[in-house]
Design brief:
Helices cover 58% and strands 8% of the residues. The protein has 17 helices and seven strands. The strands form two sheets. Strands 2-3-4-1-5 form a five-stranded parallel β-sheet, with helices on both faces. Helix 7 packs parallel to helix 9, helix 11 crosses helix 13 and helix 13 packs antiparallel against helix 14.
Length: 342
């Protein structure tokens, strides 16, 4: 009987899989570290890919049968990209369960999304020596807990506005979520390097400054703030955007698109017509758009559209202070939104 077979109440193999590759990698690594303390130890760890298994189907069985040169546990890590790469693994597991192959190591397989009826999942489900570890995208509640725990370790907190802005951008990829949280921490400063009077609350402006990478998302944030009456926020993120190289005319064009979307939603095209023009469909962004549609109606909407048109003409005059013209328009719209009930 082999070393792995002699272990009672212990799994030989784990299949870590799911659509969230960041979460898959994180959980697979945690499992590997339970087997061996150093994943870079070439005497204790063998790493294989689906290309290795395709080139040499016997490489997995050979790696699993190899004895430890230094004593202690051995680990075989396999990363595959899809169903096709799982066939040699399923065959090995079946033969091991039947007593046809030895095993001196533990096996951790890291995969993406797999079909329930696929050969690899079925092999792990049927094996008494293996376990499935499915990894599905985090819920907003899970993400919120992860964010709070990570920030709390550095003495930081998240404002309500920042939470609404940040969490939807983290869904679907644990690795990217971790990266964005680390950016926020570094942006505010590690606790041991912060002065006593440094702010420890992460604001919506902080989130926009360092985690929203796309120009479109940044533009949307400026327009959202202007059309819902957030005067202090719109001034802050507009000037941050300019400092980052954004164009005032680009901001104006984004504003004009949003006003056109609002007009379309209130006309015969309705919500679907607005969505065809690029209005947000889901989540907090869609809720914000609905709020803007309720605020900007009739004469108020037509006044805003006329003001945007006139500012564009003024910006095209030679020597016009385009930065100031754009900022002035955004502040005026934010003040008007406040009076409209924003």
């Amino acid at each position: 009987m082999t070393g792995a077979q002699q272990r009672s109440n212990s799994n030989l193999a784990w299949l870590v899989f799911g659509p969230d590759r960041g979460l898959v990698a994180e959980r697979a690594r945690a499992l590997c570290l339970k087997v061996v303390p150093d994943l870079d130890d070439v005497f204790a760890v063998t790493s294989l890919t689906d290309d290795d298994l395709k080139t040499d189907p016997a490489s997995l069985a050979d790696a699993m049968a190899a004895l430890s040169m230094m004593g202690g546990e051995r680990l075989v890590r396999v990363k595959i990209s899809g169903e096709a790469g799982g066939a040699p693994i399923a065959a090995f597991l079946k033969d091991f369960d039947a007593g046809l192959l030895p095993a001196e190591a533990r096996l951790v397989v890291e995969a993406g999304e797999l079909k329930k009826a696929g050969r690899l999942r079925k092999a792990f489900e049927a094996s008494p020596n293996a376990k499935l570890v499915p990894c599905y995208p985090d819920s907003l509640g899970d993400l919120s807990q992860m964010v709070e725990a990570s920030l709390g370790e550095e003495g930081l907190t998240l404002s309500p506005g920042a939470r609404v802005r940040l969490l939807p951008t983290l869904e679907g990829d644990r690795a990217r979520a971790r990266s964005e949280i680390e950016k926020l921490i570094l942006y505010k400063g590690l606790e041991k390097f912060r002065a006593d009077d440094d702010a420890t609350e992460i604001t919506e402006g902080d989130v926009l400054a360092c985690t929203v990478g796309s120009a479109d998302a940044e533009m949307d944030s400026i327009i959202d703030a202007a059309l819902t009456g957030q005067t202090a926020l719109v001034d802050d993120i507009y000037h941050r955007a300019l400092s980052a190289g954004r164009s005032p005319i680009g901001v104006l064009r984004a504003l004009q698109r949003r006003l056109d979307q609002i007009a379309e939603s209130q006309s015969g095209g309705g919500v679907q017509g607005a969505q065809r023009l690029g209005a947000p469909r889901f989540g907090p962004a869609a809720s914000g758009f609905s709020r803007q549609c309720n605020l900007w109606r009739g004469a108020a909407l037509e006044s805003a559209r006329g003001a945007a048109f006139n500012i564009e003409r003024a910006m095209k005059h030679s020597g016009a202070p385009v930065d100031a013209l754009g900022g002035d328009l955004l502040l005026k719209l934010a003040l008007r939104a406040e009076r409209l009930g924003g």
